[in-house]
Amino acid sequence: MSKLYLVPTPIGNLEDITLRSIRILQETEMIFAEDTRVTKRLLNKLEIQKPVAPFHSHNEHKTLARAIDTIKSNTSTVLVSDAGTPAISDPGFLLVRECIANDIEIECLPGPAALIPAIVASGFPCDRFVFEGFLPHKKGRQTRLKAIAEEKRTTVLYESPHRLVKCLGQIEEFMGADRKVCVARELTKIYEEYRRGTASEVKAHYEAHPPKGEIVIVIEGVS
Ligand code: SAM
Hints:
The protein is an alpha/beta fold. It folds into two domains: 106 residues, Cobalt-precorrin-4 Transmethylase, domain 1, CATH 3.40.1010; 105 residues, Methyltransferase, Cobalt-precorrin-4 Transmethylase, Domain 2 (2-Layer Sandwich), CATH 3.30.950.
């Protein structure tokens, strides 16, 4: 019986890998990785030696059939992305769907994903929330922003640091300057930061202090 494990990897702090993730990486026959260099660095730190093959979004469609053949020829194959949980704004979904269609067992281990600490520490309700991932850069962006403006549940976005101020400006424009937001930056890393306030307050802060690193934006739902 063949099985695909989705193994979450740290989003900044190596200590966040679970004991089970380490065991599965030690026991698996091979690892599919978004970027083999990033994964090999992690495996070196964990003192694990395993064959690592590339599986990334640019060739996800093309390599799907080949990946399924490989998974079928093994008992255990692992998919990892560079950081966090595979398939969450990362390659993986198509492979999972194809495995299910081929009766290959799937197991996703629990572990790091940037959205979870961001939403929990935002202080906004997290009993129900909407994860929007990265908003499209151009086409469809305004439609999504308008939908989020009407959303009653807390919304979580991934954003790059150089687009943060622009995105906060659009939150102001579409949702009002007083809409509350929380920017979670560099989670689990040395310069981890949560900045909470209205869209205009948080935007003013990052205009004065251009951000670096990785960013999650949490937006309070409309009341
Ligand atoms: N698969 C990952 C997960 O489970 O969260 C997400 C991968 S996506 C390509 C990368 C984005 O996730 C970053 O641009 C940022 O928005 C968010 N992210 C990843 N690590 C983060 C961190 N340490 N702090 C804040 N955001 C992070």
